[in-house]
Task: structure prediction
Amino acid sequence: MITLASIGTQQAGANAEVDSQGVTSAVPSAEARIRESALVDWLRNAGSVLIGFSGGVDSTYLACLALSTLGRSRVLAVIGRSASYPLEQWQRARSIADQFGIPVLELDTHESSDPRYVANPANRCYFCKQELWSVLVPVAKERGLAVVCDGTNADDTAGHRPGTQAAREREVRSPLAELGFSKTDIRALSAQRGIPTWSAPSSPCLASRLPYGTAVTAERLAQVERAERAIRELGVGGDLRVRHHGDLARIELGSTELERWLIPERAQAIRRAAIGAGYTRVAIDLWGFRSGSLNVLGGVRA
Amino acid sequence: MPIASLRERLVELSLDVEIEIRDRQLILIPRGRDAAFHDSGVRQEVVEIARSVGFTHVSVEIIDADHASLRCDQPA
Result:
């Protein structure tokens, strides 16, 4: 197990640039360092926290900071498992928790039993988060943890995020957003602390691959997951989304990868991977990866 | 949506493609195997053309290589 105390001042290696993720340097800015100090104060004031933990960039950084500030007995990271949570992300979450000694609890959530969620309206995330927090908040009360929080950051607050309403209703706090952390801040601070998610692509739930109005079913989510896994296995790095349009898989890649994989032989490999996952037609988006691109298609201002 | 002018612009770029429209998505279906979409200049122009006529997404379908060869080899 790696202790945060031992790596707290560790500098990132020479491969500290991840352009496709918008990170140009792993060295935190002075403002980011000030925000981190403020976060430490925030956590001390909270006293104890339950963190909605996905193993993604943001919640992992928050969990690591909470652990180093409060200690194991006053931190619990909870993974909400469901069909929309990719297996690989679960594995990464478990691996990171093991690596750093983060106390973890796994609980099943049942948003797929809610017809309002399944119908996949533009505020689908609200129903998902409503379910998540209805499961997690009581756990915090049972265990005497003072504050429930998530990894929402300041950049997230600018986009279409109906899930934040559900968090507010349950008095779930978002310290990274409240203290002004950008994604770039979090990546750079994570790199400095040796947290491996610093360069990980953003990883929203699988339901975000289905256009609004397309019912969220376990079969569709599994199909998207299979296709993304198969394409990853080809060596595709950075951002990747398989957008599900019925028989057609529309693949979004980061700009660097788009350049590499539009070469005909490689594009054929992507096609075969998606066909193997159950699609009959495969297209590569020429615009490349755009976070929330289906919001645009659904007429939602992101 | 001025589809005719869209077709004209694609022809100007020497892109031999069929087009399919789904909602506000434009899907380009190459008639030949190598339609030069790996050229970033071509790609950027296509995206700009699609945006200019109101599409929110533009993608190129990856057609089966064997199928494409057959189609390429067919006499005009």
Summary: The CA atoms of residues 55 and 90 of chain A lie 7 Å apart.
